[in-house]
Write a structure and sequence with these properties.
Cytochrome Bc1 Complex, Chain D, domain 2; about 180 residues; mainly alpha; about 55% helix
Length: about 180
């Protein structure tokens, strides 16, 4: 093969394919028009549109997820017209016929635990760049729910090693946990 052909193939491939691994986060193309207006007005203050790619739900599933997320975050309710525009787009783009982007799994094999001061230092370092600790202090989740949230925050940019993440999840489950599934 000529150098020009190899160069053209290399440029055409996404960077993740060139280095032999998938990206850590999905890359969702921003919609235009009314869908984008609804998302910009109601969604992007708390999360990016890439988060939608972690799910493959039907209309009822998306409706339940939106209600649960807004209730959990204290967010405002969507107007009926906005909700319908958003649900139509979500089902078309991330419906049950699609494959959700996989979340990174962190093995729970680390058995050393944080003390309260160690955990609070890590929270200050890894979490408060994006939000206040009051979000954590108001929440009560079982350990597995904290793990999903911690992995999601790491995928959004929180600087946590596997060991730090697992130790933090154990601490959050112990200190800010509950026996109820949420």
């Amino acid at each position: 093969m000529s150098r020009a052909v190899i160069f053209a193939i290399t440029i055409a491939l996404p960077l993740s394919a060139q280095i032999g691994r998938r990206p850590a986060r999905p890359q969702v193309t921003r919609p235009d028009g009314p869908v984008w207006q609804v998302i910009r007005k109601n969604c992007t203050a708390c999360h990016g549109i890439d988060d939608y790619a972690f799910f493959a739900l039907d209309r009822v599933g998306w409706q339940k997820l939106i209600e649960a997320k807004h209730k959990a975050s204290g967010g405002a309710d969507l107007a009926d017209a906005d909700r319908n525009v958003l649900l139509d787009w979500l089902v078309e783009r991330f419906g049950p016929q699609t494959k959700p982007f996989p979340r990174t799994y962190v093995p729970p094999e680390i058995t050393t635990f944080f003390s309260d001061p160690e955990a609070k230092r890590l929270l200050d370092r890894a979490c408060t760049k994006c939000h206040g600790l009051d979000r954590i202090e108001k929440s009560r989740y079982p350990e597995e729910h904290w793990r999903v949230l911690a992995v999601d925050m790491r995928e959004r940019g929180a600087q946590l090693s596997d060991e730090e993440l697992e130790r933090l999840v154990e601490w959050l489950g112990r200190v800010w946990g509950t026996n109820q599934d949420k």
